[in-house]
Amino acid sequence: MSVWLLCALLSSLICQTEQDGHPLSIKEVNVYAETDIPDNGAWVLNVEWRDEFAENNESRKVSYDVQVFHTEQMSLVHNETVRVTPDNTTHHHWNWTSPIPLQCTSHSVRLRRRDRDHTGEWTPLYTYKGQDLIATKVVVYPRDHVFMVGSNITFCCIFKTVPSPDSEFLIGISNRTYITKPVHFLIPSKTTSDIPCVDKGGNEGGSSVFIGYPPDDQNLTCVTRDLSSVECHWNRGRKTYLDGNKKTIYTLNGRDCDFDKCVLPAVPKMTNWTLVAKNLLGVKILTDTADPTHRVWFRAPSNIFHAAYARNVTLSWNVTNYTSFPMICQAMLNGSIYNKTFNGLGLSSIVLVHLQPFAKYTVKVRCGSDEHFYKWGDWSEMTEFSTEEDIPEAVDVWIQYFEQNAYVLWKPLTRQQSHGIITQYSLTKGKWREIIDITPNTQCFNITPENERSDRKITVSAKNSAGLSPPSTIIVPGYPDNAVNISRISDGNGGFEMAWDGYFNSTCGYVVEWFPTYYETQCAVEWKKITECDHATFCNWKQYGIFEAGVKYTVSVYACIDDKPMLLRRREEYAIEQRPSGTVQNLRGKPNGRHFELSWDEVPLQQQKGFIEGYMVIAFHHDSKTPISTSVTNGPKVSLPLEPGSYTFNVSAFTSGGEGGNATLRMTIEKNIEQMIVASVVGFSAAILVFIIVTVLCYKKRKWLKNLLYPDIPKPKLEGKWNSKGFYCPQMTEGYMKCEIQEVHSSERPATAESLHGLDLIRSNSTVFPAQHSFMSKSPVLYPPLWRCAEKLTSIIENPSYNMSILEPVDVAQISELPLEMEDSYIPAPNCFQENVVVTGTSPSYKPQHSLQMYS
Ligand SMILES: *[C@@H]1O[C@H](CO)[C@@H](O)[C@H](O)[C@H]1NC(C)=O
Ligand SMILES: *[C@@H]1O[C@H](CO)[C@@H](O)[C@H](O)[C@H]1NC(C)=O
Ligand SMILES: *[C@@H]1O[C@H](CO)[C@@H](O)[C@H](O)[C@H]1NC(C)=O
Ligand SMILES: *[C@@H]1O[C@H](CO)[C@@H](O)[C@H](O)[C@H]1NC(C)=O
Ligand SMILES: *[C@@H]1O[C@H](CO)[C@@H](O)[C@H](O)[C@H]1NC(C)=O
Ligand SMILES: *[C@@H]1O[C@H](CO)[C@@H](O)[C@H](O)[C@H]1NC(C)=O
Ligand SMILES: *[C@@H]1O[C@H](CO)[C@@H](O)[C@H](O)[C@H]1NC(C)=O
Ligand SMILES: *[C@@H]1O[C@H](CO)[C@@H](O)[C@H](O)[C@H]1NC(C)=O
Ligand SMILES: *[C@@H]1O[C@H](CO)[C@@H](O)[C@H](O)[C@H]1NC(C)=O
Ligand SMILES: *[C@@H]1O[C@H](CO)[C@@H](O)[C@H](O)[C@H]1NC(C)=O
Ligand SMILES: *[C@@H]1O[C@H](CO)[C@@H](O)[C@H](O)[C@H]1NC(C)=O
Ligand SMILES: *[C@@H]1O[C@H](CO)[C@@H](O)[C@H](O)[C@H]1NC(C)=O
To answer: Which one, of 490, 485, 474, 503, lies nearest residue 553 by Cα?
Structure first.
């Protein structure tokens, strides 16, 4: 009986087990949040259970329904069917991420088993307890959490009572808990983003969260700077906006590092470096692979020692760790890279050559690996050094003749040429090579010969503490050249140009020399040595911008033959012509036959300021402002046909630069009474005689003569040149009773005759020496204005009926020869009795500048 009972009990138990096995099979259910330490917000709800049923059965396709509720309101917040893999495990784990922190309110979970044909019973509720059950003050979740920019976060607040009406927390999920809508964080927070929470009773709480980015470090590069350790460097990339205990943590090959500063021992073989950058929002892994000896970035050479000579310097420094390492070094000298690099094993010194003596230099050095060049090391600190003195360069020597003396001149050496401080110049001369020491600021020395007229060899050297420069030799000719014609040219461009044919006997090039023609001071000569011409057969020199306007220069070219100059060409030139600054001198007048002749002396040479092109002569009636005669002449005189009266004459010289000031002369021209009576009687008699003849003829042949009442008048030869008033009768202008100079206006004190003569002599010598002012011949030569004038006069006299197109200076020539030609011209009789005398063909608006162009 008892056995049966036991049996029945057992079977019923088994049957019940069969029937209700499903709910019973789920055991050991455990519900927990993913972490429990920082109680500031947890979202993942983990559920673990063991299914006993599976233990007893072969593996089948099994799944579980899981439901999650907000416990207080028993509202279903998640419903899922979890499929488990078909194996013989009995332990299961599932997790779910809640949209709100699990602390906000209690969450309850229940499960049921489902297989092919059975759906089990729900388990009881397993609850993860919320903080709303125990919180004693206003609390907001999540708190002090880090979120990625762009996250949507739902906050909850656990109130003591109920939320205030303007609160963001409006959706109630339990008696005490209210949540916000999801808050979208678009920008990173500089410090924190705060969410306040106030309940109706005025109790406050709140939350701060951090919005940032995960690490974004880039460009990991590992280098060695001393061949014993490796430094790794990287860039931060995008900012994380997370600091303090939330900052990124770095590890390199497992070692903790600070940002951009990580040192590992160097192993001379291919090495992997792995950098892990990690913060609360993510991880970034960077790698770099290299042999450290291919990643050498030297530190700056330190303690550079220098040993400087005149033209080279040795720089040395100590090499400790790289003594057998192939190195390449370069230097920066005075701010530019020295054009040579240096290499060697453990290089510790370099030599810089081609330096300037007696100069200050700054230098710095850097090195790199020669075999596997990676990058230049750091520059060393700037080192200063000075080179020593060296002998000076040869001086540039020339000669000048001035007032019976000969001088040797030389150009002062520049800083670059002197290679030190010049202490003196040394000059040797004469047969016995007499040595003369000259103070350093002298550049000109009188070497006037001792009655000897032979070539003399002079050498000049500069001296500094290093010694004497190579000697510069010049041979001073005993008898300077004298057979060169001076040509006069006006450039007008502010400079001079010289071109000459190459002189094949020249052994040491050419010298162009210039000086102001009229300013005579010793040593005021400038020169330029031309060692080689651009072309073998043709040489050229130009110089602009250094010449004074209105100053005449003498420019000469010499060939240098075995240190002896030989004059090739000489010119006198104005770089820029100006109008004369002085007036013509000594203006005077005298009668000459039927004319009145004005003459004058030249404008003083220094006041000419250009080549005199001609003179403008204007005659006025006394006390009248209107000119009665204007003429232009090339030479220093003009002959004017004038009737007796009082006249004022203005004479001015002009150059291509313009017209100078006027010299003025006042004169009265009076008639001779006797001549007047004779002339009147003769004239009257002749008139009566003519009248009688005419009367008789008229009476005899009055009809025939009717048409000839007006006899033919011969046409003037120079028809068109004369105005209708014509010329005065010669008989009437013959006698001049009185000529006197009443006043001469001159803007400057006229030069004395001696000074003029002296200048003339000096300037007009045709014997030419280098820079010579005094070895002049006594044969005066005509100066440009006179000379030109003379040429013109000659041509006019020789060929009175010249064709006007022969002479180019149309206006000027045409006008200036009028008084001359007048004497030989036929003067038409009918015009004889007209009164005014006017030299015509002169335009009142005459412009000398215009005629200048025709000259040049
Ligand atoms: C849970 O989901 C299952 C299917 O996925 C559905 O049949 C069931 O009705 C859901 N339950 C609730 C309460 O929504
Ligand atoms: C499943 O069970 C068999 C025997 O019962 C065992 O050998 C095997 O290791 C189990 N597999 C797993 C994943 O536990
Ligand atoms: C949640 O479960 C998935 C697999 O279902 C797993 O990969 C993940 O690691 C789990 N998360 C946590 C926080 O345990
Ligand atoms: C956050 O919400 C906005 C709309 O409010 C949506 O456009 C965005 O995709 C959401 N971001 C995430 C990460 O879910
Ligand atoms: C929630 O409030 C209701 C009535 O307002 C009350 O019956 C219930 O016990 C409260 N629940 C908790 C967990 O306090
Ligand atoms: C040379 O290498 C040693 C280690 O071998 C290191 O301690 C030292 O700092 C290095 N010196 C220099 C100048 O790099
Ligand atoms: C990383 O290196 C590349 C190329 O060398 C450069 O273009 C880039 O700007 C670097 N990144 C940063 C963050 O400096
Ligand atoms: C470096 O890493 C690469 C791949 O990550 C691997 O193939 C190589 O063997 C590593 N080299 C060294 C020297 O560890
Ligand atoms: C440097 O200059 C000195 C003196 O001028 C000379 O003796 C030396 O040979 C020079 N050194 C080099 C490397 O040129
Ligand atoms: C460099 O080496 C010299 C000797 O060769 C020594 O006198 C000097 O002190 C060293 N300088 C440094 C910075 O090591
Ligand atoms: C460097 O410059 C000097 C003159 O400045 C020159 O003589 C020398 O030949 C140059 N050297 C190189 C390698 O260019
Ligand atoms: C060059 O010199 C030689 C004698 O040395 C002379 O015969 C010749 O005429 C000279 N040539 C010229 C162009 O002066």
So the answer is: 490
Query: Whole-angstrom Cα distance, residue 230 to residue 686?
Result: 135
Determine if ligand 8 sits within 6 Å of the CB of residue 267.
Answer: no
Question: Is there a contact between 672 and 732 (Cβ–Cβ < 8 Å)?
Answer: no
Nearest protein CA to atom 9 of ligand 1, as residue? 79
DSSP symbol at 25: H
Q: What is the mean pLDDT of the chain?
A: 77
Q: Is 152 in the pocket of ligand 8 (CB under 6 A)?
A: no
Cis check: omega of the bond before 268, within 30 degrees of 0: no
Structure tokens at 303: 């303690």
Distances (CA, A) of 487 to 129, 484, 554, 556, 773: 122, 9, 10, 11, 17
Residues whose CB falls within 8 Å of the CB of residue 704, separated by 6 or more in sequence, listed in order: none
**Cα distance between residue 755 and residue 604, in whole Å:** 9
Q: Tell me which residue has tokens 């996250």.
A: 151
Distances (CA, A) of 550 to 120, 577, 815: 127, 5, 27
Q: Which atom of ligand 5 is nearest to the CA of 132?
A: 13
pLDDT at 268 over 80: yes
What 3-state DSSP class applies to 2?
Answer: helix
What backbone torsions phi and psi does residue 190 show, to the nearest 5 degrees?
-65, -50
Instruction: Tell me the best of 218, 259, 375 to mutate to test the pocket of ligand 7, counting ligand atoms within 8 Å of each CB and taking the most.
Output: 218
Ligand positioned closest to the Cα atom of 317: 10
Atom of ligand 5 nearest to the CA of 175: 1
Q: What is the CA radius of gyration of the chain?
A: 60
- Look at the alpha carbons of 502, 508, 509, 515 in this order and tell me if their dihedral is positive or negative: negative
**Residue 566 Cα to ligand 12 middle (Å):** 12
Which residue has better confidence, 577 or 763? 577
Q: How far is 777 from 767, CA to CA, in rounded Å?
A: 6
**Rounded distance between C-alpha atoms, residue 275 and residue 261, angstroms:** 11
| Nearest ligand to the C-alpha atom of residue 568 | 12
Instruction: Name the DSSP letter for residue 319.
Output: -
Please answer whether residues 704 and 777 qualify as being in contact, where contact means their C-beta atoms are separated by less than 8 angstroms: no
Tell me if 657 sits within 8 A of 577, measured CB to CB. yes
Look at 219-223, 284-288, 669-673 and tell me which has the smallest mean pLDDT.
669-673
Two tokens at 221? 């590069």
545-564 in b/e form (b: 16+ CB < 10 A) is eebeebbbbbbbbbbbeebb
Residue 62, beta-bridge partner list: 84
Sign of CA dihedral 357, 358, 360, 365: positive
- 318-350 pLDDT, tens digit per residue, is 887 788 899 999 999 999 999 999 999 999 999
Tokens for 526, please give them: 């400038």
Q: For residue 241, what are the contacts with CB-CB under 8 A and spacing of at least 6?
A: 188, 189, 190, 210, 211, 212, 213
Pocket of ligand 8 contains residue 737 by CB under 6 Å: no
- 8 Å CB contact between 770 and 567: yes
Ligand with an atom nearest the CA of residue 377: 6
Q: Find all residues with CB under 8 Å of 693, minimum gap 6, and list them.
A: none
Indicate whether residue 152 lines ligand 4 (CB < 6 A). yes
Judge if pTM exceeds 0.70: no
Q: Sheet holding 229-235: strands in order across? A: 218-224, 229-235, 262-265
Q: 3-state SS of 595-631?
A: EEEEEEECCCHHHHCCCCCEEEEEEEECCCCCEEEEE
CB 594 within 8 A of CB 733: yes
Q: In whole angstroms, what is the distance from residue 536 CA to residue 220 CA?
A: 65
CB 241 within 8 A of CB 213: yes
774 lines ligand 1 (CB under 6 A): no
Q: How far is CA 52 from the centre of its chain?
A: 93
User: pLDDT for 442-454, tens place per residue?
Assistant: 889 988 766 667 7
